[in-house]
Model the fold of this input.
Amino acid sequence: MTARTLTYFVSDLHLGARYFSDAREHEKAVCRWLREIEPHCRRLYLLGDVLDYWFEYRHVVPRGFTRFFGTLAELADRGVEITWITGNHDIWIFDYLPREIGFRLVDGPLEETIDGKRFFLAHGDGMGPIPAVERLMRATFRCRLLQRMFAAVHPRWTVGLAYGWSASNRTKRKIEAPSPAPLLKWVEQNRRDEVDFYLFGHYHMLFDQHIGNSRVIILGDWISNKSYAVFDGKNLRIEKISQ
Done:
């Protein structure tokens, strides 16, 4: 039996996004990658925006992501420790998916020791100076009362609105690519020497640089990079799957 010794990190899969020419093939590609790493994977960290949109209702399950959820559940059933850190697109995961699939859900940054190294893990949004409009949006999305009101609207209206908004934001991103400067400034101001690795998503770019004694990594995405990080207990490396 192959030993499970590796830890994988991935973010910004944006499954279900309408800007993919073939969203189903994109989902299949993610599932193929999960099955390929499964024999060696001890831990899998999903650093947010795994789904382009998700809202969890009390008694019904939104359509889509069947292959992905099934593959993720297979990994969990085979002993892979899965941690899902929510991003700004999949913030509305509550308790159904963690219980049904079997993963740990974390809303916000996570710091823990992995094979003797200290990791700081977060999606990356909301770190550093936040514009007033973004602060208002974050507060709105996290408001329990507004979440209940949103759940009362029929999905035929909310789902289309959410995916349309995402596609519009993606078009804007291509024109005005967000700078990671606020995030890097936050790391510089809050970094601690005992943290070996700071890992983030959100910015849809590959970034790997030392700040002080810590290594800071932005994981890229699966829109243009198809990138991820793997840690073997000593070394952490960035890899890409073949296009």
Remarks:
- Residues 6-240 form a domain with the Purple Acid Phosphatase; chain A, domain 2 fold (CATH 3.60.21.10).
- The longest strand covers residues 41-46.
